[in-house]
Amino acid sequence: MSSYRSPYKGTSGIQRILNATRYSLAGFKTAFQNEAAFRQILLINLILIPLSFVMPVSRVEQALMVAVCLLALIVELLNSAIEAVVDRISMEQHELSKNAKDMGSAAQFVALSLITVTWGLILAGYLI
């Protein structure tokens, strides 16, 4: 059995890390330029994360507040990637394509709900 190695795979060691960093930065740039939802969630992060540093919460609570914000950003990047792959395959209406996009959207809904619930529960503990 022969081992298949993609001709698109990079090198190893430090060069691989540098390449991965460059690809990641290109992904951020593409998402920012082409995805309104990414920009909106980034704006939410730019507001909520600094706000978490001035809230009268414990370090663990602050870590949770930041983590759920970053999770929503991660989910949006993955959702956008799914949409790009589906659109690359075909722009034709297809039930499986719709399902993939709807599930990506549902994942983002869960991530945004997690922000709301986490922040709400933590802040309610200080208000009540």
Tell me what the structure shows.
The chain is an all-alpha fold and 128 residues long. The chain is 81% helix and 0% strand. The protein is built from 4 helices and no strands. The longest helix is centred in the C-terminal third of the chain and has 33 residues, at 95-127. The relative contact order is 0.10.
Looking at this protein, list some descriptive labels.
4 helices, Helix Hairpins, 128 residues, mainly alpha, DAGK_sf
Question: In a nutshell, what does this entry contain?
Answer:
The protein is mainly alpha-helical. It contains four helices and no strands. A divalent metal cation binds at residues 35, 83.
